[in-house]
Design brief:
Distance between the termini: 38 Å
Largest sheet: 7 strands, antiparallel
Structural class: alpha+beta
Shape: globular
Helix content: 25-40%
């Protein structure tokens, strides 16, 4: 006679209860603030940025130092509870809270806020800082700059760990390319410093996959002098037929296939225009003079269909960043959304057949969709491609364009129409390619199968990552749905 399902589940439930009890007892002995599911503020503090997801961590702890973090890691390791660090909490899959399927200890880095820049431009930045804090902070300490992304509330911890692309990246590389060192808490509770000469294998792994290997408490970055002038520009088409937008997209991708000067950044943004057609916008920056901007972009303008609207402005560094990103002030509550997204890297321009398929889908399925969707294509190459694919754990150095395909619920709040939303985004990617080979882990997709994310996020660097994982975290303490697996 078959045993009741409840009896079959009983050992697992008892094991979970014992793990939670052991973890709670250990954490309660520490000086860090502890939140449990019974705590009044637990629900608010465990709410994901992406409201489509509902993570339920076993506990959240708020340390104020690397030593406090090390103590919490030891507690979790002894209880065999997964450990997750949360820097800004903007993981698309809520992995900073353990993800939807993992009951973990979340170590929140909110209190680690130090930003220091020395006389050589080396910045030590703790991982509780948001990008807005970092951009303003290093500017205030000597008018320095880093190639950060465009969302001020994103945390520096995960953003740098997994790549870190932004408007300054074609000139200055990815954010992780500016890392020269780090302090990290390992799975055994030790605290170590890493660089090219100190634990170089671990340093390699941290630049592309850090959360699988430890908790980085501070990064050391080689900052750059902020450019004296930033040209900001937008170019729009409204109400145009599909053929014009296909031609404009092709002009954009062919222009960047020619690897124009690194000072130029452009992202192409597509979305519904509200009248049954597709809006088309090129927006970006040129880090130099307006005369040089106009000379650099004239070949692109010559190749575009006529009838666009071009707006050009000149800014100082901080004003230029805020013109793109909005206010850098992160003192208010972080915004939320309810969405699903996929990403794609391509190394070569899309073929004419792929372009036709893509824009046919946009016009037929996207133009009148109730979803709040957009499709962005960021230009890569430049300084990003000057780094070999195996120099860091981030492998996508030959990328021409990065696509972010994103669809929010109609109200940007729950509930998410999963059947419609998933199908729309899946179809959007499928209209471009049936065989995606590379994706950006900072636009993480929890619906990818293991073999897919291993290849698409890490490519040929994955096996080396697995070997290093075996060496530094043999108990797999730092784990979640898409963490690096241990080598056999």
């Amino acid at each position: 006679m078959a045993r009741p399902t409840s009896l079959l589940l009983l050992p697992a439930l008892l094991g979970l209860a014992a793990a939670q009890s052991n973890l709670t007892d250990c954490l309660s002995s520490l000086s860090s603030t502890l939140l449990l599911p019974s705590s009044p503020s637990y629900d608010a503090k465990s709410t994901a940025y992406n409201l489509r997801l509902h993570p339920s961590p076993l506990a959240l702890v708020y340390p104020s130092s690397a030593e406090d973090i090390a103590s919490a890691v030891r507690c979790a390791a002894e209880a065999d509870v997964p450990v997750i660090a949360r820097s800004g909490g903007h993981s698309y899959a809520a992995y900073g809270l353990g993800g939807a399927d993992e009951e973990a200890l979340v170590i929140s880095l909110d209190s680690l806020k130090k930003i220091e820049v020395d006389e050589n431009g080396k910045a030590t930045i703790e991982t509780g800082n948001r990008l807005g804090d970092v951009i303003q902070g290093i500017w205030d300490e000597g008018e320095r700059a880093l190639p950060t992304g465009t969302c001020p509330y994103v945390g520096i911890g995960g953003h740098a760990a997994f790549g870190g692309y932004g408007p300054f990246s074609r000139k200055a590389g990815l954010l992780l390319d500016r890392i020269s060192g780090a302090k990290v808490v390992l799975a055994n509770g030790t605290i170590t410093s890493v660089s090219e000469t100190e634990q170089p294998d671990l340093f390699w792994a941290l630049r592309g996959a850090a959360p699988s290997f430890g908790i980085v408490t501070s990064w050391i970055f080689d900052t750059l002098p902020a450019p004296n002038n930033t040209v900001g520009f937008t170019l729009n088409y409204w109400g145009r037929p599909k053929e014009d937008l296909v031609s404009a997209f092709d002009a954009f991708q062919q222009f960047f296939a020619g690897n124009p000067p690194d000072e130029l950044y452009i992202v192409l943004v597509l979305g519904p225009d509200g009248s049954g057609r597709i809006s088309f916008q090129l927006q970006g920056n040129y880090f130099g003079s307006e005369d040089d901007f106009r000379a650099t972009t004239q070949p692109l303008l010559d190749a575009l269909p006529e009838g666009y609207d071009l707006q050009v402005n000149n800014y100082g560094w901080i004003d230029g960043v805020e013109a793109t990103s909005g206010s850098l002030d992160t003192s208010g509550p972080a915004p939320n959304d309810t969405f699903y997204a996929k990403s794609l890297f391509i190394d070569e321009p899309l073929s004419s057949d792929a372009l036709d398929s893509y824009f046919t889908y946009l016009f037929e399925e996207g133009a009148n969709s109730d979803l709040g969707w957009y499709a962005m294509s960021d230009a890569y190459n430049g300084a990003i491609s000057a780094v070999p694919s195996n120099a860091t754990a981030f492998p996508h150095r030959s990328a021409l364009l990065s696509f972010q395909l994103y669809a929010s619920s109609p109200t940007y709040s729950p509930p998410y129409p999963s059947d419609e939303g998933f199908a729309f985004v899946d179809g959007l990617l499928g209209s471009i390619t049936s065989e995606p080979k590379a994706a950006y882990i900072n636009y993480v997709d929890p619906r990818l199968e293991q073999a897919q994310w291993e290849e698409q996020y890490f490519g040929g660097n994955y096996e080396r990552l697995r070997q290093i994982k075996r060496e530094v975290d043999p108990g797999n303490v730092f784990r979640w749905q898409q963490s690096v697996r241990l080598a056999e």
